[in-house]
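Input C-alpha cells:
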C-alpha cells in the first residue's frame, strides 16, 4: 500500500470581485497559500456577458486556462486569437512579454462563463523566452476509469493509472488531473516525489486520506499536501447524494526567488522595474504593444465599463503591487 501524502491545510477560496465585472474564488496567491512554487495563483472565475479581462500584459510566467462552462475568446498583439469552449484548455507562455485580452462569450441565456486559471512560474533561464500558446481541446484529453467505473479521471497533464497526457504543453513540469468520484468510489493517485501538490474541490464533498484517517474537503475548498508521500487518496462517502469532483494539481518546485509586480513575475526587484519600463516604453519584447488594442476588448470600452487606461484597469485585477518571496 502506498504511503499517503499528509494534509498541510484546508481552506475556503472566498469569492471576490476582479477585473471588469468578473467574480473569482482565488486560493493560490492569497494569504492562505503563498510561496508554493511553482504555483503563483489559482482563480476559479465566473464571468458573465459584458464583463471580462481586457488588454493587459504579462512577463515571466505561464498561464493555464481550463474552461468548464461557456466560452472565452482570446487575442494578443502578435495576431494570435481564438476561442476555447467547455473542457478546452489554453497554455500560454508569456516569456519576455505578451499583451493580450481574455473576454467571455455573450451567451444568449445570460449565463456565466466559468473556469480555472492557474499561473505557473517559469525557471529563471526561460523568463525571457519567446511567447507561445498551446491549445488542448476537450476531445484530445485522454481519460481513464478506475474502481469499477466509479471514478473518472481526465488526464490533462501527467499520468494516471497507466494513461499519459498529451506532451509538451508547458515549460514548467505540472500535472493536472480532473477527478470525478461517484458515491462509494475511491482512488489512490500517485504523484512525483517532492513535488508540491494541492487539490481544489469543484463539486460536492471529497474525503481525502486513507480510511480511518480521512478529512472531508467541501466545494470551493483547497486542500494542500505535504511534499512527502507517494500518493493522494480520495473518495466519496457511499451515502452521499452527489458525486465529488476535485482537480488535483502538482508541480516541480523551482529553487529561485520570486518577485511579482502584478502581471510581471521575475527574480529580482531590478528585473521587475525593468519589465515595467519595457512595457511603458514598448521595448525588449513589448514593441508590438505600442498603439495596440484588441478587437474583443473594444466593446467593453465603448460601453464605458473601463475607467481610464484599459491596460492599467486590467492590471488592477492582478493586484499591481510588489510581492516578494525567497
Amino acid at each position: 500500500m502506498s504511503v499517503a501524502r499528509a494534509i498541510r491545510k484546508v481552506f475556503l477560496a472566498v469569492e471576490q470581485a476582479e477585473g471588469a465585472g468578473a467574480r473569482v474564488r482565488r486560493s493560490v496567491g492569497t494569504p492562505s497559500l503563498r510561496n508554493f512554487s511553482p504555483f503563483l495563483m489559482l482563480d476559479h472565475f465566473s464571468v458573465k456577458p459584458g464583463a471580462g479581462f481586457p488588454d493587459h500584459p504579462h512577463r515571466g510566467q505561464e498561464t493555464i486556462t481550463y474552461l468548464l462552462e461557456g466560452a472565452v475568446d482570446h487575442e494578443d498583439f502578435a495576431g494570435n486569437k481564438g476561442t476555447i469552449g467547455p473542457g478546452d484548455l489554453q497554455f500560454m507562455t508569456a516569456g519576455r512579454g505578451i499583451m493580450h485580452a481574455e473576454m467571455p462569450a455573450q451567451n444568449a441565456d445570460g449565463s456565466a462563463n466559468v473556469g480555472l486559471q492557474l499561473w505557473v512560474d517559469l525557471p529563471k533561464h526561460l523568463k525571457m523566452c519567446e511567447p507561445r500558446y498551446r491549445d488542448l481541446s476537450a476531445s484530445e484529453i485522454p481519460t481513464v476509469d478506475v474502481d469499477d467505473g466509479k471514478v473518472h479521471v481526465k488526464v490533462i497533464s501527467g499520468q494516471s493509472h497507466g494513461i499519459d497526457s498529451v506532451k509538451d504543453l508547458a515549460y514548467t513540469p505540472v500535472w493536472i488531473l480532473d477527478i470525478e468520484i461517484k458515491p462509494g468510489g475511491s482512488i489512490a493517485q500517485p504523484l512525483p516525489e517532492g513535488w508540491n501538490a494541492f487539490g481544489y474541490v469543484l463539486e460536492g464533498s471529497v474525503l481525502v486520506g486513507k480510511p480511518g484517517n480521512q478529512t472531508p474537503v467541501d466545494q470551493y475548498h483547497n486542500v494542500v499536501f505535504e511534499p512527502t508521500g507517494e500518493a493522494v487518496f480520495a473518495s466519496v462517502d457511499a451515502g452521499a447524494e452527489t458525486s465529488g469532483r476535485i482537480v488535483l494539481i502538482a508541480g516541480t518546485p523551482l529553487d529561485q526567488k520570486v518577485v511579482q509586480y502584478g502581471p510581471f513575475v521575475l527574480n529580482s526587484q531590478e528585473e521587475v522595474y525593468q519589465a515595467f519600463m519595457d512595457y511603458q516604453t514598448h521595448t525588449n519584447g513589448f514593441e508590438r504593444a505600442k498603439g495596440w488594442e484588441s478587437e474583443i476588448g473594444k466593446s467593453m470600452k465603448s460601453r464605458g465599463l473601463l475607467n481610464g487606461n484599459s491596460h492599467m484597469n486590467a492590471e488592477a485585477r492582478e493586484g499591481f503591487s510588489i510581492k516578494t518571496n525567497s
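Confidence is low (pLDDT under 50) at residues 304-321. The longest strand covers residues 39-47.
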